[in-house]
Amino acid sequence: MTVAGVLIPAKADAYATAKLPALQMRTPIVSKGENHMKIGYRTPGLRDYSFEQKLQLAKDLDLQAIEVAARELASEDDAKRLRHQAADAGIAVTSVAADSNMCDPALLTEVRDNIAGGVRLCQTLGIDVLFSRTLWPPEGVPQEDTWTACINATREAVQICADGGVRFALEADPPCFVQDLERVERLLDGVSHPNMYINYDPTNYYIGGSDPLLAIERLGHLMVNGHIKDGVYRQEKKGETPIGEGDVNYAEIFRSMGEHNIDIAMNIEHCNTVERVTSAAKYVHSVLASM
Q1: What is the pLDDT of residue 35?
Q2: With contact defined as beta carbons under 8 Å apart, do 164 and 205 qualify?
Q3: Number of domains in the chain
Q4: Which of 7, 101, 110, 130 sits in a 20 to 30 Å window from 288, CA-based?
Q5: Nearest 5°: phi and psi at 181?
Q6: Closest residue by Cα to residue 58 from 34, 28, 29, 82
Q7: Containing domain of residue 266, as a range?
Q8: pTM, rounded to two decimals
Q9: Which tens digits make up the pLDDT trace of 103-162?
Q10: Greatest distance between any 2 Cα atoms in the chain
């Protein structure tokens, strides 16, 4: 069966419903004046907490949003419950992460199932942003063959999202195949689809060797969601650090986003304890207060 044009695999019938709201395609979230960027956090790290607790934490930390992973929601009922809980708490659910390996042709059926399942969750949650990284190819595959596979799989994923009224956002992330600005632009050109957007993670661009501010210049018109973490780029280490202990200049990044009228949710991520989420939120609030 299909829902909003999205094929429902037999194994995913638990998600199926004929009552999902039809969502209209929208342009990127851009204002003409005052910036309304939301600060939130990714919830998958707090594995032992209920969504009620995760939402309460967001309220306690003066965060306006959360971002969820598809794996956190085992059924349509879970998504419906979260939608009502978030509305009651006054917290926005901004996007669904549905990581799929776009680089291995042997996994194309899995990609289709993952993305279709993510679309149904977005529909049930009443949101329209799904994002994925490209992940990586099997060993021994020539780069050009991987580009062909990645472009084809990503195009299918983007179309599945379009058929369901959901925007597909690509996240660059080392050590994935598409890990820097140059490769993001090559994939965008290869897919060439109006429903392909960007999940902006400035730290991933930084530790992948790209300038996060240049990414805003080149891709800002496509940004619909984003992440906050921190990192360093050293000869001996190119990787993440606790938020506030790395080199990523969020004052410059937030200022540039404001100048480009990019009004999206930026979600703190890779914090797997309440203490780490709290520390990161305090840091982000201090950066915003200093601007």
Answers
A1: 56
A2: no
A3: 1
A4: 130
A5: -60, -45
A6: 82
A7: 2-290
A8: 0.88
A9: 999 999 999 999 999 999 999 999 999 999 999 999 999 999 999 999 999 999 999 999
A10: 54
